[in-house]
Amino acid sequence: MDELLTSAQMRDVEGAAIESGAVTGLDLMERAGNACVDAILAQWPDLAETPPRATVLCGPGNNGGDGFVIARLLARKGWQVSVFCLGDPQKLPPDAHANYKRWLEIGETAPLEAARDADPGALLVDALFGTGLTRPLEGLLRDLTAKPAARVVAVDIPSGLCADSGRVLGAAMRADLTVTFHAAKPGHYLADGPAQCGCLVTGDIGLSHDPGDDVLRLCRATDTARLRKSAGGHKYSHGHALVLTGGAGRTGAARLAARAALRIGAGLVTLGVPGAAQQEVASSITALMLARVDDAEALADLLADPRLTALCLGPGLGAARARALVPAALCAGHGPGVVLDADALTAYADAPDALFDQLHAGCVLTPHLGEFARLFPDLAERLRATPTSGPAWSRVDAARMAAQRAGCVVLLKGSDTVIASPNGQCSLSAAAYARAAPQLATAGSGDVLAGFITGLLARGFAPAQAAEIAAQLHVDCALSFGPGLIAEDLPEEVPKVLRRA
After folding, report:
1. The whole model's pTM is what?
2. Non-local CB neighbours of 463 within 8 Å, separated by 6+ positions
3. What are phi and psi of 30, to 5 degrees?
């Protein structure tokens, strides 16, 4: 995983490096400008053939200082560069002011108001606001975000986008290329971030940091070698998962989850089925097992088997059946790992605390935003509210607080899936940029994800670890299949993904 640094964390990294004497603020600004120019020419090599005209918009802080460096470097490569500055340049921070004066040796600036009617040329450089934006963009700034330009590059993050949450503050520049420094920020991947950033490049500016436990981590490629079964084992040594189904005509979602648990390596997967649905399920499964589970007493009898190592409740279960079975599933304490999804969450919409009181550290909750709002209405309300200042409340904030409240791992589903533990550790599985997987927006894909987590819990993976691997593999399988994906295809892609390791 890679660390995603908030604005405050990035300031601390830069400040520590400067304070140690390892680097100066001017050095960092020069390196950032060079990283931007290198990224621009790598993204659009044609711009190097006949140096065109560019417009650079410089803000009142150090992001504006980066803009002056970029303007100077482009001009020295033969570009015609127009620079527009927000506010009084004489009031710039010291390092930014030094680069403003360096720019004046070869060019001139105009007030930002003049950029409204100016032709931006072949490239518009957005160096208005960096990661520390705290107020919504209004007036002229809002107008400039809508100004058409052939190519837009954002320095660190598009102006108007909150670097900590990925939420738009008033309005935001839409970039074709975003160049950030040292480490990506949460806002590059959360919420509106990927849509506003275009292509994301992280430039090395010679910094280092020691990651702390409170740093958000970006899940990277699945270590598929860990998912291969060990030699010499038998089916029970790889775990036994139980997936509970709903009644007749409502068993499909649970069958999807069970198939996913089996494909990801659980040695044995049983479907717990009410009597009225036994024939329906029996006629549609082969490798999966079947057990009759009509009520909580029957479930408790099954859970008495110590070989049962994971349990999934929710997909297609029905609210009434879920409310009856969840207490029996959770009274086993810290025995089997438990995944609660869909109806197992919705069933407690009227009494979330009644659910939280039963949960234990071996549980994983997997809500989408609607289900999240039923269990954590106050947190969801903060997410729905229009942000009026930055840093804005984020899905990471919401998931962390939810995990603390529930006392177990919470996986908040979406293209920016957040996995949070009660101790505050948090990771992000982002289906964005090269890993964008819009084909996952199909009925049943969430049931498959629940099944993946269940299978990994059955195999002995810790709850947060199981959730992270499952979320990444979920995207891997979607990308492997490509367009036309339906939920049934996802488990069948697992062998292909594992073979490519």
Report:
1. 0.95
2. 337, 361, 362, 363, 364, 408, 409, 421, 457
3. -65, -45
Identify which of 211, 203, 244, 281 has the alpha carbon closest to the alpha carbon of residue 35: 203
- Give strand ranges (E) for 403-461: 409-412, 416-420, 426-430
Size of the chain in residues: 501
For residue 417, give every residue at least 6 positions away whose Cβ sits within 8 Å of its Cβ, in sequence order, or none: 411, 428, 429, 430, 431, 471
Q: What is the pLDDT of residue 332?
A: 60
Domains located in the chain, CATH noted? 2-211 (3.40.50.10260), 224-499 (3.40.1190.20)
Whether 196 and 175 have beta carbons less than 8 Å apart is answered as yes
**Does the pLDDT of residue 1 top 60, yes or no?**
no
Do 209 and 14 form a contact (C-beta atoms < 8 A)?
no
Q: Which two tokens stand for residue 464?
A: 């947060």
Query: What residues have CB less than 8 Å from 28, skipping those under 6 apart?
Result: 14, 17, 18, 181, 205, 206, 207
Residue 51's pLDDT band, with cuts at 50, 70 and 90, is confident
DSSP codes of every residue in 63-120? HHHHHHHHHHHHHHTT-EEEEEESS-GGGS-HHHHHHHHHHHTT--EEEGGGGGSS--
The per-residue pLDDT for range 226-275, each reduced to its tens digit, is 787 777 677 777 899 999 999 999 999 999 999 999 999 999 999 999 99
Q: Please answer whether residues 185 and 5 qualify as being in contact, where contact means their C-beta atoms are separated by less than 8 angstroms.
A: yes
For residue 96, which phi and psi values (nearest 5 degrees)?
Answer: -65, -40
Indicate whether 501 pLDDT > 70. Answer: no
Collapse the DSSP code of 215 into the 3-class scheme (helix H, G, I; strand E, B; otherwise coil) and give the result. coil
Residue 334: per-residue pLDDT: 56
* Model confidence pLDDT, tens digit, residues 390-444: 999 999 999 999 999 999 999 999 999 999 999 999 999 999 999 999 999 999 9
Compute the distance between CA of residue 408 and CA of residue 189 in angstroms, rounded to an integer. Answer: 24
Edge-to-edge strand list for the sheet holding 177-181: 109-111, 80-85, 53-58, 123-127, 152-155, 177-181, 199-203
